[in-house]
Amino acid sequence: MLLLPRSQRLWISIGCFAAALALTVAMDFGADRGPFFQAATAKTDRAGTYDLAKGRFLSRVIGHVRAHYVDPDRIAPREMAVAALVAIQRDVPEVMVTVERDKKSKEPVSVDVVADAAKKTFALDRVGDLYELNWKLLEIYEFLEKNLPAQANLQDVEFSSVNGLLSTLDPHSLLLPPRIYREMQLGQKGRFGGLGLSIGVDDGTLAVMSVMPETPAAESGVQAGDLILQIDAESTVSMTLSEAANLLRGEPGTKVTLWLRRDGWDQAKPVELTRREISVSSVDDEPLPDGLGYVHIRNFQENTGEDLRAALERLQARKGGLTGLVLDLRDNPGGLLDQAIAVSDTFIDHGTIVTTVREGAREREENHATSANTLSELPIVVLINRGSASASEIVAGALKRNDRAVILGERSFGKGSVQVVYKIDEAALKLTIAQYLTPGDLSIQSVGIIPDIDVIPIAVGAGDLDLHPASADDKGEAGLASHLDNARAREDIRPAAQLRLLESGDAEGSHHRRRGEPFVEDARVKLAHELLLAAPAPNRKQALIQATGFLARRQATEEARLVAELQKVGVDWRAGEAVGKPRVDTKLEIRAAAAGKPLVAGEAAEVVASLTNTGKTPLFRVHGVFASAIDALAGKEIGFGYVEPGQTVTRTLSVQLAKSLPAIGDRPTLHLYVDDVPTDLAMSAFVAVDDLPRPLFSHSVRVVDAQGNGDGLIQRGETVDLVVRVANTGSGRAGQVVASLKNETGHDVFLTEGREEIGPLAPGEAKSATFRLKVRDTLKARNVQLKLSIADQELKVWSQDDLSERVYPDGFPARVAKSGVVQVGEGAVLVRAGAHRDAPELGEAAAGAVLTLRGAAGDWLEVEWPGPDKAPERGWVPADRVSQGDTGAATPASVAEVLQSRPPELRVERPELVTGAKHVLIKGVARYASGSNARRQLYIFRGGDKVFFLSEGAAGAARDELPFSFDLPLVDGENALDIVAREDDAHQSSIRFTVFKK
């Protein structure tokens, strides 16, 4: 029985978040499939708002799950309901969910859902199948729609909940938003209307990274390293790579103009290019010495099989032909199933390539090799690693199980499931509908392809060892939440040989080079090269027999290198055979490098580990690997080496704690290995690390339109400077502040300068950043929409704000220069950013203050005063509120600065970071800037769970304060807490720390 109609093609890959797992054609079941499969005719109701209560995506997704999911036994409707709601509470600040579970069965029986100030309990005891799950979630949707604020994005709410419930099935089933779905379709085809260049970011500016030969970009003289300042009418300042790619792509035959800047040019120049269909090869090839060839397959797209044939023909055409091949599948995430079959069939003349099964193997489709045009006598070594997944695992498995190639490298990812894409309006559901088996009906699901020659990469450096790669389960399919298991998977397969390969930790693999860069054999390619010369048999088993002596010699060489390198860092790595179970005493101390000081983020820490051999026989090759929530320690290794009976070996390791590290309690544990074999021995210590005081960024914005009429207002046709005054209103020093501005108005606003490094900011200090933009005459909108980002790159503290700068009509009086002074009368006067009563406030001039007069525009006067940093500041005051004079001195501190945008101030009484208590009290207060009508909330996350929520309406507190107190039950080990004070979407502050329960 065929698994799917023949017109469809299976797409298989790793990506849980990428758009790469799909069929090339979506299934169309017609209207007779029932209500779950009928098209969603509208996304909006008559008022133009999203109708969440109809659940159009939800109902159709649940229908497809019910009809097609690979393993119905994994469907747990109540847990799916809980996961859907937990996803909503993670993404929607106003929502919190509390789950009530049965004490015996642990099944969820009800959920309390808070939506801002409203709360309702929903019973789950009757949610026994997918139909009831659908109706229950629709009921909850209706409650959320009524109680969430008007600005909540209800479509995002539905997408979040649907992906939440799908996450309980497996890591690869998810609902793809329209943009991701479009990008997936482009990636799968391997061709599109474009220019033939790749782009990246060079010091904040969009840049050409490489140019493909014989493409519009190459023919127009575009070069790698050119900076792209403008695409047609759009400025590229602060543009994302995705946005730029969308502008560069288009229908073949259409034109696009790039404004390029190049070293040696006096100014930017326009280059007009005509788009045409670009075929991006998924295959790279390089000739190697000794008649060998190298082929790298990046992914499996529509033309991969043809690209491989062309690459092999090029390699065969050189003098002497092709006598052996290195096939590189490292970090290949997968792709189209038929292309994986085509690639395998290129080298296999008979036997099974892959079998696809579903419904407990009752439906089965086998794909077999054909003998036509097969390179069955070509010796092959296939390179794989943990990033080789799905379609690349099919190829590696087919070549291995058919004894056609030697597999070299690391265990592959282990994705043995197949997804299909069902189009839902402009979005798409990617759903797991089957599993595939390698020859012999062996599944690699969660296990992967075991290499014939298992390469263990190691590195040795001063103070930095990498003798023990991370556990296989830390990566790959088995490390993903809700991964599928398979009874057909075999974990007892051992590699034929194991080779510890001393590599440079920062060496770039040959498969990572960009097109156009010179090819250099990395350590794995060199090893494969040598293996082909030593074992040139086209049959895998014969090649492994031939390779026995070579591998033994190579291992001896690598062992000698390792011993020598470790000797340089004082570790005796002699080999030997331990007798009996190792017996040791251990001691671990982690302290500040500065004696007597506490551990603090940004400072050096010292790890002192002592190991005493209390047994009667020597211990060989003893080393330890740290497990810790502190990044500076996680994965760090300490080598003890050879330890005689009664001997104590003490090692000291220095680490630098990151400045951005939040306050954390932890129990770092050094897990010990003896003769490279894991043991149950370990040493640990409790530590508490204090964080650095955090900055907080507030700001004000004013317009300087010196190239316009000078009135401090934006008018169409003007080029203006937007001066952003950034103030650090927090308690900590910011080390390296960068401000950036992004245009969100469209091409009628052209941003020419959008990023400025402000530098350090002490608490209470303020500095200005200036951005330039041109407002075109064609602008129809009444406001210029911008997004401002301010970030401290050292402490990883940032803030964002949506700026909406009003565009004023033409005809206002132009500024004229004036001199003299003005004096404020008996009442204080607001100083504004422009010559209009609706311009933003910059400050308040005190009664009697004297300000320097600089200009006038109609009934408004431009004034100047010394700012807090003594640099002159300017603004506008109404002429009828002040008196003018010819001479005088400005009054110091005459204007109290008003920050237009100020995030909440959050104060928390932090509990002990390491404790044996079952509960801790989390209390504090969030203070908000007065005068705002924004909605205010405070919530606490522990990991991914929201454990506390307080809205302004429910708090019953003063308008500008939200005091809170919460008794938090602790779980054993880490309790990573995020406390967030929020004011609508634009302003929020957070404090993060981790409490460790002993």
Q: What is the topological layout?
A:
Elements: E1 11-13, H1 56-68, H2 77-91, E2 95-101, E3 108-115, E4 118-123, H3 130-147, H4 154-166, E5 174-176, H5 178-189, E6 191-194, E7 197-202, E8 205-211, H6 216-219, E9 227-231, E10 234-235, H7 241-248, E11 255-261, E12 269-274, E13 276-279, E14 283-287, E15 292-297, H8 304-317, E16 324-328, E17 334-336, H9 337-347, E18 352-358, E19 363-368, E20 380-384, H10 391-401, E21 406-409, E22 417-424, E23 427-437, E24 453-461, E25 464-466, E26 497-502, H11 523-534, H12 540-546, H13 548-568, E27 584-592, E28 604-613, E29 619-627, E30 637-643, E31 648-656, E32 663-666, E33 669-674, E34 677-684, E35 687-689, E36 697-704, E37 714-715, E38 719-728, E39 734-743, E40 749-753, E41 755-761, E42 766-775, E43 783-792, E44 797-808, E45 816-817, E46 821-824, E47 829-832, E48 841-845, E49 850-857, E50 860-866, E51 872-878, E52 882-885, E53 895-897, E54 905-909, E55 914-915, E56 919-927, E57 936-942, E58 945-951, H14 952-955, E59 961-969, E60 973-983, E61 987-997
Parallel strand pairs: 15-16, 16-20, 20-21, 21-24, 24-26, 32-61, 37-44, 55-61
Antiparallel strand pairs: 1-17, 2-3, 3-4, 5-23, 6-13, 7-8, 9-10, 9-11, 11-12, 14-15, 18-19, 18-23, 22-23, 24-25, 27-28, 28-31, 29-30, 29-33, 32-35, 33-34, 36-38, 38-42, 39-41, 39-43, 40-42, 43-44, 45-49, 46-49, 46-52, 47-48, 48-53, 49-50, 50-51, 54-56, 56-59, 57-58, 57-60, 60-61
